[in-house]
Amino acid sequence: xxxxxxxxxxxxxxxxxxxxxxxxxxxxxxxxxxxxxxxxxxxxxxxxxxxxxxxxxxxxxxxxxxxxxxxxxxxxxxxxxxxxxxxxxxxxxxxxxxxxxxxxxxxxxxxxxxxxxxxxxxxxxxxxxxxxxxxxxxxxxxxxxxxxxxxxxxxxxxxxxxxxxxxxxxxxxxxxxxxxxxxxxxxxxxxxxxxxxxxxxxxxxxxxxxxxxxxxxxxxxxxxxxxxxxxxxxxxxxxxxxxxxxxxxxxxxxxxxxxxxxxxxxxxxxxxxxxxxxxxxxxxxxxxxxxxxxxxxxxxxxxxxxxxxxxxxxxxxxxxxxxxxxxxxxxxxxxxxxxxxxxxxxxxxxxxxxxxxxxxxxxxxxxxxxxxxxxxxxxxxxxxxxxxxxxxxxxxxxxxxxxxxxxxxxxxxxxxxxxxxxxxxxxxxxxxxxxxxxxxxxxxxxxxxxxxxxxxxxxxxxxxxxxxxxxxxxxxxxxxxxxxxxxxxxxxxxxxxxxxxxxxxxxxxxxxxxxxxxxxxxxxxxxxxxxxxxxx
Length: 536
Hints:
By secondary structure, the chain is an alpha/beta fold. Helices cover about 45% and strands about 10% of the residues.
């Protein structure tokens, strides 16, 4: 363990212990009615990809009607949530009309079936995280210095979604350079959580989390290098899957790295309200070759999956972290109990040694010196980089910097090697490489681990810095390259979503997705921020 890092961890824990009860009891009361989004009134917004495709294929629904319905929902909620950065509604409506004409031109039912077999997402709307590159659309990624930059081509995963027939509706909000777990930038202002406007939707896929949680996206594409799919999924009560390292191309993503191993850490994956859609969306994003490697088309027998669970880090490492919220621990216990009643082999996990989880997690990011820096071209070499970054943090806190404070803190962690020497970084990375094999042996080809996605539900705006120091709950699994699915498990007494992570061995994504489907069936999955008003 690194003494300096652990002192920070303990100080943050002490501050949270004192501040959190005061904020909840006196500063921020329970959410009021004026922080609620409009209820869903159109039943189409409650249907999954599979259900909607069935209606499109049978010509009971047009793509134009579906796309128009989602645009109306986005316009109804975005004025409150500020999750949209740039829309392409007119182009999407034109593409929907072209799709309907294409379907109508099919001479027979067999022709329609073949069309949807070739393009399984035909006519379905999708929302795109800004960092994932949609040709011709904003590619600023929350940065003032990039505000006029447009994507020159689709990112690889976006290209695959469009080739499968999906129709992009918009670009959604991210933190600056994706370097934060709170989506609040000088360029686009603050994105809000649909369950409570005083709380963050998370980051860096914060816009996607917000829109999906509000029922304003059928599904979205996010990216994840340290929890950026899973944290917004937790905070906004939806499903999000971080694939195994290397199975979904991040070509075209910003920021990116020249490191040939970057796709082990940085991944793109789906965010959705419907667990049953995750596998198919992953197949499209991964491509045929990697889908075969993941065996996504092979059925998974639920009762053959061995389940292990843990309620957080253990021993002195667990003591140093902020305690895992009781409702999140309860969600894990409820899930484990349910799976056991179905006859699955369920046991409390004897985890590999995670005593240095924080150090290993941060070492993985700090070692990415070939990844884009926030202010790379504007500062000198050597120790001057650290001094200039520190000065920008001071300016940012005082409101005089063109960079956001959270992004600069992330930058400082990288510039300083996470406050560790190069020899220590290599030591912890070597330890992490050993852990990959240990987790592979622990879980095998038929095992999953239930684990906290993060230690707390969505925090108040500006207070995410406290939750940031639990980021090794998510980041460690990027370093290890393991697949992780976040599963929503309802809301707590304050109306905030809680949930858990289902983790598999490398390339065992299908096990995570199968367990997610069962937990959705048993516990209901996504719970809307406001009850639907569907009428008769």
